[in-house]
Specification:
The complex is a heterodimer.
Chain A lengths: L7 E3 L5 E8 L3 H9 L1 H7 L6 E8 L6 E8 L5 E12 L3 E8 L8 E10 L2 E9 L3 H11 L8 H8 L7
Antiparallel strand pairs in A: 1-2, 2-8, 3-4, 4-5, 5-6, 6-7, 7-8
Helix pairs in contact in A: 1-2
Chain B lengths: L10 H11 L2 H11 L5 H5 L6 H13 L3 E3 L8 E3 L1 H38 L5
Antiparallel strand pairs in B: 1-2
The chains are: A alpha+beta, B mainly alpha.
């Protein structure tokens, strides 16, 4: 069993969220898994019980992508899509993102960066929201009671890349 | 990302919290305070920063409700307000779990692709 890599999430500025994760694979594969519909729909799924009936990707600058997820139990659908702004295979993709039932104002811009070293790939995904208000709306809409962040989790968040010891 | 729950914190307060957390020095201060309360002098030590500079950061953290001052009037130790920090990290934690689940699926897919690639030379 290889040990699971951890996903780190930080908020380096008022409008950004950044996710970092290492994958044990060359970046061409990680890139393919983000750009080929038949591969994307294998992992970009929702929680258990959800499928991804629509996954269309027109991979060129100005091209669009569209994802729809469906909860199989009751047919509830969720869609999102956007436009590719920058494509540099296999290392960088910049695209806009908007949910059909947007719960935040404006579009968000996502930047995917893949860096390969020693056969492993570090993925960095930066979501830039149009405004602080937009990011906070996302945050607020996801806020739920129930789970209390433990100090362990906190330590992990605080130990994020730029953390000072 | 899909879990649309109910907002429970006034957005401006949350805003102040995230703005406060956006700075690496302030995150470092919070990490130190997670281990127990500390005076300004003690907090300044690991950062190679002047006390006034640290005090400025402490003010931001205090305004965001992330830290408070202890009772000892002489030392005026700062301490972590875990509840406020918990509110902010709770959301990040949910978001993280959601993506962690997806990335586990991606791990499995990548393993499969690697095996396939090794077996059949160049399939892609």
């Amino acid at each position: 069993m290889k040990s699971a890599e951890t996903l780190k999430i930080t908020t380096p500025s008022e409008r950004e969220l950044v996710m970092t994760r290492v994958f044990d694979a060359p970046r061409t594969l990680v890139y393919d898994a983000h750009t080929k519909p038949e591969l994307v729909r294998r992992w970009l799924l929702g929680p258990p019980g959800w499928s991804m009936p629509v996954c269309e990707i027109d991979l060129r600058v100005g091209g669009t992508y569209r994802y729809v997820w469906r909860r199989d139990q009751d047919g509830t659908e969720m869609g999102m899509g956007g436009v590719y702004r920058e494509i540099r295979a296999p290392e960088r993709i910049v695209s806009t993102e908007r949910f059909d039932e947007a719960w935040y104002p404006g579009e968000a811009v996502g930047t995917l960066v893949l860096v390969e070293q020693g056969g492993k790939t570090t993925l960095t995904y930066t979501m830039l929201y149009q405004s602080r208000e937009a990011r906070d709306a996302v945050i607020k809409s996801n806020m739920e009671s129930g789970v209390t962040a433990s100090y362990d989790r906190l330590a992990e968040l605080l130990a994020a890349p730029q953390g000072v010891r | 990302m899909y879990a649309i729950g109910s907002g429970r914190i006034a957005p401006d307060r949350l805003d102040a919290t995230f703005a406060a957390l956006a700075d690496p020095t302030r995150r470092g201060i919070l990490a130190r305070l997670a281990a127990g309360e500390a005076s300004v002098t003690e907090l300044a030590q690991p950062f190679a920063m002047s006390q006034p500079a640290i005090s400025k950061h402490l003010k931001v953290l205090e305004r965001a409700g992330l830290i408070s001052r202890g009772r000892d009037a002489q030392r005026r130790p700062r301490r972590l307000e875990a509840k406020r920090l918990g509110e902010a990290t709770k959301w990040l934690e949910r978001y993280r779990r959601f993506w962690e689940g997806r990335y586990h699926q991606l791990d499995a897919l990548l393993d499969e692709l690697k095996t396939k690639g090794n077996r059949s030379g160049d399939r892609r």
